[in-house]
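INPUT
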Amino acid sequence: MLDPKYVREHETEVRKALADCHSKVDLSLYLDLERRRRDLMMSVDKRKARLNQASEEMARMKKEGKDITPYQAKLKELSDEIKQMDGEIAAVEKDFREIELQVCNIPHSSVPVGGEEANQEVRKVGEPAKFSFKPKSHDELGVALGILDFEKAAKISGARFFTLSGLGAKLERALANFMLDLHAPKGYKEMVVPHLVNYQSMEMSGQFPKFIEQAFAVEKDNFYLIPTAEVSLANLHRGETFAAGSLPRKYAAFTPCYRREAGSYGKDTKGLIRLHQFNKVELFQFVEPDKSMEALEQLTADAEEILKKLGLPYRVVVLATADKSFASIKTYDLEVWLPSQNQYREISSCSNCGDFQARRGAIKVKKEGGAKPELVHTLNGSGLAVGRTWLAILENYQQADGTVAIPEVLQPYLGGLKTLTPGAA
RNA sequence: GGAGAGAUGGCAGAGUGGUCGAAUGCGUCUGACUCGAAAUCAGAUUUACGGGCAACCGUAACGGGGGUUCGAAUCCCUCUCUCUCCGCCA
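OUTPUT
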């Protein structure tokens, strides 16, 4: 959500931003509703002031024992008029809010303009391994090793689910522990958070109303399943004002993520790439408003470190204006190399949301010297998507005989295990 | 799931239809006293929106929403949350 006053005063800039994000929002309607709301408020406020004055007068008269009945009818008229106008304001406000919630965040000036094709590679780290044989896909490897099963999951739930067993399950847990252990010393407080959240939490973090079709809903109880722990972490401090000097606040949470993947029929149907449920370690930061751009670089580096330590080749891409997420002003995607696909695939997305979420959630920070509290800036990033890390390890560390080497840093988490071999699970 | 109690400013806690945005205490900030500090005294101390260059003015907010009334923190309805007791349960 943007500051309506800012939008009003920077119409040209906002129009360009909307165009750059390929947004279909009607800004003229936005401005018109905002104007009407203000006009109505001004005239109703005047009437309310009059009514308040009259009410005080009535109180005084009653105290003096005077008869107030003759005035009541007249004030009833004014009161009814106010009620009617309040109704009009509520209607305009509802319309305004509806459109306001559809306005995307304004991209940072350093973000390339355009759609997916305009995304820019920022850096490439590590060299994709050369295989003397044709590298297999992770699902082929996993199924052959006996640690990954889609058929069982299909029986239990349906398409786009998976089960891991034995060392496959243990590898998943090892990865999560490895990631959390690496983030903790950098100030990320580990959290366990709700996976079922209310509408307001989804709205605050920017998922709703725009992406409501992408969320699983528990309609009977008015809950939504989190598509990412970002939702829960972002809402941790909703409605709060941080004390001066108490930022940044950093959090990490390991949770499943639930996504309907509506509209992605036929895409990535094989393997672990696109599922209704997957595990992720999420990083989240609340920072001072002037610190968020540098925080984004640091957050991205924190996520990258996992890939570096695991020895997985990857590249960093800055997402173009129309490809970045709705709430973000700048997003870096981390893409890991997948030998079987001969391409880089997203494994993390790190975003600076500026004050967009903070405005929806009224999250502020007090300033030194008694100045007015300001909205904080929020950042989120995957550090990392555990399922995709799991599959990246299988693919990148596979050997000619179908076994998979375990990266050295993970071995302590797997009881010293060095290789995944068929039957061992 | 059943029965009951409650939700007020940073915190504690009064207020049960009329100058209540809200007593009082604590906390915090400023000033006085002091070499300095403590203690004491004096004052200040919510937020949002709108108008104004500004000083400032107006409106709204006592868990959320709705209602009664000329007027609601106060009465009514409803939802959420918290607490106590009972039941159930990892």
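end of record. Residues 38, 41-42, 44-46, 48-49, 51-52, 54-56, 58-60, 62-63, 68, 71-76, 78-79, 241, 362, 370, 373 of chain A lie near RNA strand B (CB under 10 Å from a C1').
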